[in-house]
Design a protein that fits this description.
Layout lengths: L1 E5 L6 E6 L6 H4 L7 E7 L3 H14 L3 E7 L8 H13 L7 E6 L1 H13 L6 E5 L2 H7 L4 E6 L2 E8 L4 E5 L8 H18 L1 H15 L3 H21 L14 H11 L6 H18 L5 H13 L11 H8 L12 E6 L2 E5 L4 H10 L5
Parallel strand pairs: 2-9, 3-4, 3-5, 5-6, 6-9
Antiparallel strand pairs: 1-2, 7-8, 10-11
Helix pairs in contact: 3-4, 5-6, 5-8, 6-7, 6-8, 6-10, 7-8, 9-10, 9-12, 10-11, 10-13, 12-13
The structure holds nicotinamide-adenine-dinucleotide and glycine.
Amino acid sequence: MQSLNVELGERAYPIHIGRGLVDRGDLIRPLLKQPRAMIVTNTTVAPLYLARLSAALKVVGVDVIELQLPDGEQYKNWETLNLVFDALLQNRCERSSTLIALGGGVIGDMGGFAAACYQRGMPFIQVPTTLLSQVDSSVGGKTAINHPLGKNMIGAFYQPRLVLADTDTLTTLPDRELSAGLAEVIKYGLIRDLPFLEWLEGNIERVMARDPEALAYAIHRSCVNKAQVVAADERETGERALLNLGHTFGHAIETGLGYGQWLHGEAVAAGMVIAAELSQQLGWVGRDDVRRVEQLLARAKLPTMAAKLPVAQYLDLMRHDKKVEGGRLRLVLYRAIGEAVVSDLATDAQIASAIELRLPDA
Ligand code: NAD
Ligand code: GLY
């Protein structure tokens, strides 16, 4: 097992990465205020891992409540969130009970938001089971649900007490989901860690083949990057915004097509290529750099072309982005490969042209 800390003063917490961690109730028990926890998961993850995590907690004396939600991005909404509140209340969970999210980013984001709201905040633990959630969403305390008008628009910053990333759970993950997670892994290299990007360029096929050593390295290095950024800028007043490379375009794809059509990581991948096109138009990177971004994403079996939506719809949806300030669109772009910046320099015409370059032919 490898461990690191997210250094946030009195809210600091450990991330443990390793094999068989869903069976390690002993790692969770010391962090519980009272021996009572509700595991929130979904109908896909439950048959795979719920009994094991439940049993591991019961062995160490924890009274466990289980809740299975429907599976899918389209359920990351108020209605499903309310099912969590219903279960917490029906089971008389207290403010010092703990909510444990077992699943991917959808369960983690929604479980975390429920924990942030229930009785104004109950302890929360993340047990992420997708690559994307192990390298990104379980770390850093962003919790949210979607609104029909915009992705992750309703939420809170609420840090977990522990992140337990069991790399063995990735053996059951569909290939398409593994690729989606790789988009966020590649993102760290593109925004701030050029040596990691180079490592990925040399090892992407090993990671795709789920070589345990390569996967563990990629997860750990991603978490180191994320933990550093979050420790420096928890509330996204500066550097943390860089973690949204490709996301403004990607969120427009997810919202425009309807949640659940493209996977989040797929939409982000296409967005990272559009951001490269735009950075080239601004003269910050060259054609070879755009190709470099595109080629690595393609090797990870990710889309490098955008979803076919009208450009005007992209621009409209992008105006709901959380980085909009005073009505002005701020985008994460490449000053160079491995060095992202937030910029409001691109004009609407340049943004439209970058999107158009990545639209599939009619
Ligand atoms: P997801 O939660 O929908 O999981 C993907 C699919 O894999 C689901 O069908 C799920 O049931 C299934 N699954 C989960 N674990 C599995 C396993 N071990 N074996 C087999 N199937 C498994 O998607 P995701 O990619 O994990 O997360 C995407 C979500 O994360 C989006 O809603 C996105 O907005 C959010 N996100 C949040 C942050 C953040 O900082 N909070 C960062 C990035 C993404
Ligand atoms: N995934 C973006 C962030 O955590 O800030």
